[in-house]
Amino acid sequence: MQPVDFRAARIIAFDNDGTLYPAGAEVCLSVLQAHRRYVAEHSLGLETPGIEWVQRHIGADAKEFYALMMPGQPRSLVEDFEEYCLDHEKDAIDARPWLYEGAVELLTALRAAGRILLLVSNGSPRYLKHIWEAAGYGEWFSQMYPYGPPDYGTKGERLKLAHEDWGGGEAVMIGDRRSDWEAAQHAGLPFIGCRYGYGEDSELSDAAHVIDSITELHGLLL
User: Fold this and answer.
1) Alpha helix (H) ranges present in the chain?
2) Which end of the chain, N or C, is less packed with Cβ atoms under 10 Å?
């Protein structure tokens, strides 16, 4: 693989969970709490998974994630559970809006250097809006591209659209899961993998570069 000069990237697309936002234990626990309450209220007889399950599935698109927690249930119920769960997640996000250590300094420096920052996530519009408002993403990011209507495009399709929306040219995708690498492949962009996130090392094996800390991006991008 040829070395990539990431400092030439005018557009920098970030994944959210496990890349900028820790989606920490409190948010994961809020998902499980919501599931237990919803299952009990609706007499569904489903078992609530453990926190390891939630962390393992972070990165799946919103439609898949909530459906996996409601196996065998009709789509209308899954969608109702998603809204119920997002109420719990919002409370947890509002209580802990902090990004990974070093992220604020990095985003501030990138913005000051004139880079266009875009947020491309498999989270739903409502979930990502919670993060956007709580973490103050509007200070740094030009636009977010969540997973949602009208077309529920793949992450790769949304990344390609984001790249085109902002004029194309040199760009890079940064994330912690295989789905982020696949998105970069679809959009024809290089990919930086974040080993500190939720993905396994094997998910990042094809990345152009892998980092162990978000602070390493200073040297790569600036």
Assistant:
1) 25-41, 51-57, 62-69, 75-95, 103-112, 125-135, 155-165, 178-187, 216-221
2) N
Q: In sequence order, which residues have a C-beta less than 8 Å from that of residue 30 and are 6 or more positions away?
A: 85, 88, 89, 91, 92
> What's the pLDDT at 2?
58
State mean pLDDT over 206-220.
96
- Asked if 120 contacts 14 with a C-beta cutoff of 8 angstroms, the reply is yes
Q: Is residue 148 part of a domain?
A: yes
Task: Say yes or no to pLDDT of 44 above 90.
Answer: yes
SS3 194: strand
DSSP summary character for residue 67 = H
Asked if 217 and 149 sit in the same domain, the reply is yes
- Say yes or no to pLDDT of 1 above 70: no
In a domain, 1, yes or no: no
d(CA 117, CA 115): 6
Angle between helices 155-165 and 178-187 (to 10 degrees): 50
Q: Cis link prior to 22 (omega < 30° from 0)?
A: no
Contacting residues for 53 by C-beta, under 8 A, at least 6 apart: none
This prediction has a pTM of 0.92
Tell me the DSSP string of 90-134. HHHHHH----STTHHHHHHHHHHTT-EEEEE-SS-HHHHHHHHHH
Q: CA 139, CA 142: separation in Å to the nearest integer?
A: 9
Q: Work out the pLDDT band at 63, boundaries 50, 70, 90.
A: confident
pLDDT, averaged across the chain: 94
Which domain does 145 fall in, by range? 6-22+99-221
